[in-house]
Amino acid sequence: MRQLTPASQEYRASALAIWSALLAVYLIWGSTYLAIRFTVETTPPFISAAFRFIVSGACLYTWRLFAGDAKPTAVEWRSAATVGIFLLLGGNGGVVWASQFIPSSLAALLVATVPLWMVAIDSARPGKQRPSVAAIVGILIGFGGVVLLIRFAASDALVFNLFGTTAVLFASLSWAIGSLYARTARLAASPLLATGMEMFAGGVALLVTATITGEWNHLDIGAVSSRSALALAYLTAVGSAAFVAYVWLLRVAPTPLVSTYAYVNPLVAVLLGYFLANEPMTGRTLFAASLIIGSVVLVSAPKR
Questions:
Q1: Measured between alpha carbons, how far is residue 146 from residues 45, 76, 186, 214, 287 in Å?
Q2: What secondary structure letter does DSSP report for 42?
Q3: Residue of 40, 79, 32 lying closest to 56 (CA atoms)
């Protein structure tokens, strides 16, 4: 732990640790959108997401208990479950479900609105400083870019695109709420233990949702393709590591710095979708994307 200076009051970890975690979130999360699309090709969305987070969460939780972390209290479990439901059921679950209908690059660009939601929600809370003129302009530009992106992305299957894009926008809102709540919630002292609890609770919520929506009737293990299986394995092992890094960053790094993932992930996702899955990349779509990413930069840039 490095000594804090007046210019870095908000940092509670070393610069090397913070930037290592950020790089993991940048690159790994950018690739997960395409992996999710490959997974849901032959696997029900909520079941695949539930498997991913229950396995990862249970492993992480068990490891931290054997490593000597204190057993969590009921209040800490309640907070972790709340975070897990907002981030993983509402946030990730919405993206996974929508990936059946929209390209991975479009999903990533819509998720880039998370910092806009966070600023809007945070500033509306009592006692919080109102956003600057630049932030307000950025929010308006960003959501204007979303409207254009949806319009440009619409195709013959318009109803499915609208369902998918709407689901991702609601998922982004849910992720923003969960992220803000996690910053002040009473969680386990060990960040890794708390993350394991959130992942496991979110996975259970996803499993319940899969059962309610009847996904078990559509699961055919024999029909799961090798590409879907490999993508799910990647999400479970590697993608979950990025989630651990993100939750840790929420507790040790300033919000503006953490939110920069929102305009790096889409660039990675768009490039991977274009080169590996032949997803469309038109000039109009890139223009709308530049509005969204530019607005996030404008809103999340630190004042100093």
A1: 24, 36, 34, 32, 11
A2: T
A3: 32
pLDDT in tens, 261-271: 877 888 899 88
Instruction: Return d(Cα 160, Cα 126) in angstroms, integer.
Output: 38
The total of structural domains in the chain comes to 1
- Find out whether 218 and 40 touch, Cβ atoms under 8 Å: no
What's the CA gap between 85 and 92, in Å, rounded?
Answer: 10
What single DSSP character describes residue 129? P
Do residues 87 and 202 make contact, with C-beta atoms less than 8 angstroms apart?
yes
First-to-final CA distance of the chain: 23
Structure-token match 């499993």, residue found: 207
In a domain, 2, yes or no: no
Place of tokens 């300033």: 254
* Model pLDDT, residue 1: 32
* Host domain of residue 95: 14-300
Positions of the chain with pLDDT under 50: 1-10, 156, 303-304
Q: What is the pLDDT of residue 140?
A: 86
In a domain, 129, yes or no: yes
Q: Is residue 156 part of a domain?
A: yes
Judge whether 4 lies within some domain. no
In the prediction, which pLDDT does 147 show? 83
**What letter would DSSP give residue 27?**
H
For 242-253, the pLDDT digits (tens) are: 888 888 887 888
Q: In angstroms, rounded to a whole number, what is the distance separating the alpha carbons of residues 286 and 283? A: 5
